[in-house]
Amino acid sequence: MPELPEVEVTRRSFAGAIEGATVCGIAVGKPLRWPLGMEPAVLVGRRVCGVRRRGKYLLLDLDEGLLLIHLGMSGSLRFARDLPARGAHDHFELITDQGTLRLHDPRRFGAVVWAAGESDPRARKLLDGWGLEPLGEDFAFESFHAGLRAKRSPIKQLLLAGTVVVGVGNIYACEVLFLAGIRPTTRACAIGPQRARRLHGAIREVLARAVERGGSTLRDFSSADGSAGHFQLEANVYGRAGLPCRQCGTPVRLLRQGQRSTYFCPHCQRA
Ligand SMILES: [Zn+2]
């Protein structure tokens, strides 16, 4: 599943190239997770003003309205002037005078949704309720810690929920908790300021590093300019059940939390 770093890398790979483009046409394949929500022909002639990201959504700003793009479980975007003929898994194309933006999504959990603006209920339904943006200026420690203190759920599940901080997927959640020395089952509200500060720093560092390295924890990830993601997370614990912890040698343990695999070191993450 594309995580926040992959989405950000995707954004950077085409945001500059598509800016200022005029929409010439839309091509749609099979239905995606949610319908576009407007007649594709109406988008023709609109200009692309820029591409922003909120959590795992890309916001393609048009001179009138915007498109919200989500990559779902298996989606990837490409933007180029000359793309090969549309294949069976290419379900959306925004054809512009500067190139075509194509969504390739074999499992079709991704979506492209039109909204009149960010306050449009269609946009709010998708964008409201998410937590702080970990790569942005607003990821202040105080707000983050206040968010943790208000919740009794296990910290790992709270991170995955995205309501306090957005975009910390399963792999990253395991890794940042290891770096912060926090047991994944610890209740969020029980995490004191010192450990919360380590966790805050670890989230920022791990996600920023993943973006810098081209973003991928996903085998088949490639950014919109077609270059393959070359970042393989050098996991400390994720996927390493039974193997010695890189820090202390204790075998890494695996447990299930809310149907997701959690990896941790019982020695380095004692409480
Ligand atoms: Zn350890």
UniProtKB/TrEMBL annotation:
- Give the record's keywords alphabetically: DNA damage, DNA repair, DNA-binding, Glycosidase, Hydrolase, Lyase, Membrane, Metal-binding, Multifunctional enzyme, Transmembrane, Transmembrane helix, Zinc, Zinc-finger
Its required cofactor(s), as named, are: Zn(2+)
| Cofactor binding annotation | Binds 1 zinc ion per subunit.
Q: Which residues form the Formamidopyrimidine-DNA glycosylase catalytic domain?
A: 2-110
Q: Where are the transmembrane segments?
A: 158-182
Which InterPro entries does the record associate with it? DNA_glyclase_Znf_dom_DNA_BS (IPR015887), FPG_cat (IPR012319), FPG_Glyclase (IPR020629), FPG_N (IPR035937), H2TH_FPG (IPR015886), Ribosomal_uS13-like_H2TH (IPR010979), Znf_DNA_glyclase/AP_lyase (IPR000214), Znf_FPG/IleRS (IPR010663)
Q: Which family does it belong to?
A: Belongs to the FPG family.
For this entry, the protein name equals Formamidopyrimidine-DNA glycosylase
Instruction: Name its species.
Output: Diaphorobacter nitroreducens
Q: Which gene encodes it?
A: mutM
